[in-house]
């Protein structure tokens, strides 16, 4: 009798469960009928089978490469900044640093008649990592009264340190620590391949962050100092000891000896560059997903705790082009960032919307515009490079060129050439010297910035 009752109860439960989830009414799920209709989209034609066979062993972008666009683009430019040599960030996210120093390098070479010359990226990267460690630890101290699950606290622990960044890092770090030639503090394996060092630093900082949150307020300052000493030691082991003084022999472009002198890093910068990077530039962006003519500031969008959050003025693309052209015509390179991977033929170094025909390959359409791509996270600024050339026809740009930091063998002689149509769709930010900024644009910079949180998509570091 008891077994009969249990069996009846079991059947009742089963009936109730199935009654709650009727097979013919998925309420948002995929039913068997829906699946039959969905699967009818694949016809299994000879063309379908050929595409399946090809995609089984070949990369999508290889098959999507447009046969109509394989000819090499014209490499003549009406206006080009004089520069020498190409740099290589290797397996690191330091494009922002290479780009900023490449802008300064082109200026130094021209001003002082040098041959091929590079600044030490490793020297400033050392202090970038030390400053970012302090930024995180002090941020944890500042937010220690907030719960661990607070969005800001969670963001800090999610992003304790990284090697990506933006021009604000270049300006703050150079003005605080100066620069040195590349042979004074050369690259190391960890500088060129940052992932393992970054993992160890991040793990240590997260542990230290928890300790700071649990400590007495009066103890946090001393604790942070000891934590930064440990970070410093880790950085020295991986990157070397940053010089406080060095001797440098200067040669001109003909290889002739000019002088030899002992410098400090800040003294070297003042003698050969001497520019106020923190006050001589503005950053403009083209982001049609937010209002033009407005200034935006992003919290924690800086490398140095006692530095500045970077401020962006959002402008239509044509206004940005005017300033870029004025700068290039005056032989002045610019810090430039974009969504580099979109429609880039990397071996040729050509960024062109016609490079790949994904629609024909997949039999679907991709119709989002720039605003829609930004809003849906389909596109954003991912990489910084040095804008050095524009080709003007009847006063209008038809193509642009950037000096990249992927080595001299990458792309076209270490550069990427972009069509103007590609520039419109995937260019995002430009750092412009104030003397090339029209008065009406400078006036807009006087408005109070709209403060955005650290997790805003515009914060995404360039790597």
Radius of gyration from CA coordinates: 27 Å
- Would you report the number of β strands? 14
Q: Which CATH class?
A: Alpha Beta
Query: Can you count the helices?
Result: 17
In short:
The chain has 463 residues and is α+β, with helices and mostly antiparallel strands.
Name a few traits of the molecule:
Cathepsin B, Chain A, globular, twelve-stranded mixed beta sheet, 463 residues, two-stranded antiparallel sheet, alpha+beta, 41% helix, single chain
Structural write-up:
This protein has helices spanning 2-20, 32-39, 46-55, 60-64, 95-112, 121-142, 151-158, 167-177, 189-192, 195-214, 220-239, 265-272, 317-329, 358-362, 370-375, 420-426, 439-444; strands at residues 79-80, 246-251, 257-263, 281-285, 295-298, 311-314, 334-338, 344-345, 350-351, 383-393, 396-403, 415-419, 427-433, 450-452. Helix content is 41%, strand content 15%. The longest helix has 22 residues, at 121-142. It has a single domain (79-109, 117-459), classed as Cysteine proteinases (Cathepsin B, Chain A, Alpha-Beta Complex). Mean pLDDT is 93; it is low at 1-20. It is built from 17 helices and 14 strands. A hairpin with a 4-residue loop joins β8 and β9. The strands form two sheets. Strands 1, 4, 5, 6, 7, 8, 9, 10, 11, 12, 13 and 14 form a twelve-stranded mixed sheet that branches. Strands 2-3 form a two-stranded antiparallel sheet.
């Amino acid at each position: 009798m008891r077994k009969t009752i249990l069996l009846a109860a079991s059947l009742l439960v089963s009936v109730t469960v199935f009654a709650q989830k009727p097979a013919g009414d998925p309420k948002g799920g995929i039913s068997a009928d829906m699946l039959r209709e969905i699967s009818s989209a694949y016809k299994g034609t000879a063309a379908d089978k050929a595409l399946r066979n090809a995609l089984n062993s070949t990369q999508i972008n290889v098959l999507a490469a447009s046969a109509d666009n394989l000819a090499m683009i014209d490499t003549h430019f009406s206006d080009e900044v004089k520069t020498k040599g190409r740099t290589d960030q290797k397996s690191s996210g330091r494009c922002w640093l290479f780009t900023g120093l490449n802008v300064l390098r082109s200026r130094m070479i021209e001003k002082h008649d040098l041959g091929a010359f590079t600044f030490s990226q490793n020297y400033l990267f050392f202090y970038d990592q030390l400053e970012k460690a302090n930024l995180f630890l002090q941020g944890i101290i500042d937010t220690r009264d907030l719960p661990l699950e607070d969005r800001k606290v969670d963001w800090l622990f999610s992003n304790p340190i990284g090697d990506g960044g933006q021009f604000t890092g270049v300006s703050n770090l150079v003005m605080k620590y100066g620069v040195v030639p590349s042979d004074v503090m050369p690259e190391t394996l960890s500088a060129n391949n940052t992932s393992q060092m970054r993992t160890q630093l991040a793990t240590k900082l997260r542990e230290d962050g928890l300790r700071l949150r649990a400590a007495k307020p009066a103890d946090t300052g001393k604790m942070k100092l000891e934590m930064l000493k440990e970070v410093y030691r880790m950085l020295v082991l991986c990157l070397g000891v940053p010089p406080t003084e060095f001797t440098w022999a200067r040669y001109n472009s003909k290889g002739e000896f000019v002088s030899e002198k002992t410098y400090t890093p800040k003294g070297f910068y003042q003698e050969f560059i001497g520019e106020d990077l923190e006050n001589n530039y503005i950053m403009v962006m083209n982001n049609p997903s937010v209002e033009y003519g407005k200034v935006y500031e992003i919290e924690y969008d800086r490398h140095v705790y006692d530095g500045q959050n970077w401020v962006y003025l959002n402008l239509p693309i044509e206004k940005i082009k005017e300033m870029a052209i004025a700068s290039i015509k005056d032989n002045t390179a610019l810090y430039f960032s974009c969504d580099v991977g979109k429609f880039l033929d990397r071996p040729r170094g050509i960024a062109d919307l016609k490079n790949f025909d994904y629609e024909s390959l997949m039999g679907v359409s991709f119709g989002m515009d720039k605003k829609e791509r930004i809003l849906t996270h389909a596109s954003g600024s991912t990489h910084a490079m040095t804008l050095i050339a524009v080709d003007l026809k009847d006063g209008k740009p038809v193509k642009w060129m950037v000096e990249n930091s992927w080595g001299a063998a990458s792309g076209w002689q270490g550069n990427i050439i972009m069509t103007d149509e590609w520039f419109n769709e995937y260019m995002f930010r430009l750092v412009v010297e104030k003397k090339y900024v029209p008065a009406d644009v400078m006036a807009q910079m006087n408005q109070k910035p709209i403060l955005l949180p650290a997790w805003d998509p515009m914060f995404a570091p360039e790597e």
